[in-house]
Amino acid sequence: MAGAIPMDMDTSTAQPTARADASPEQPPARPRGADARRNHDRLVGEARRSFAEHGTDASLEDIARRAGVGIGTLYRHFPNRDALMNAVFQDALGSLLDRSRELAAAEAPCRALVEWLGAIVTHAGEYRGLAHSLMSASRDESSALVQCHLPLREAGAGLLRRAQESGSVRGDVSIDDLLQLTNAIALAAEQSPDDPELADRLLRLTLRGLK
Q: How many other C-beta atoms can be found within 10 angstroms of the C-beta atom of residue 8?
């Protein structure tokens, strides 16, 4: 009927009665994006610890468990191991790129180049297996680690070009060869933990060969 009062109205005031599911006491739901960001950060943090302790072939299932998520969640964020390694290496990548910019105006361009290559060896040595993966990524454009390799290649090419223009480095040297050589040095040092001076000796040989 036209004059009927709706069933959810208070008959004394004709105002809507508050519903239980609209209570202002309930906290707002956590945004799904915030949950995803939290899981992402936990996975990267646990991967960083696991890779440092066990190498880059550490169990992904164990990383997910330590992060408090299921393996399916890990794969939603990182579809494969290289993608997770890329996320872990981003901090080191930023440091290496910053260092390349600092060395861009160095008085001795050849030494600046070798110093920067030595920094790559140091960072790669923090995670057993990373040097081998970076070597492979340089030949595999589908690898997520290409996101690390390409910025390093560009930064190194600038340092190499300046060294060649100064006449202190041979013109037939390529940045691709240097990065492969650097990863090989890191891999050799990784395989010889009882010889902590090996990487420095090999880098000094590299310096002589560049001139």
A: 8
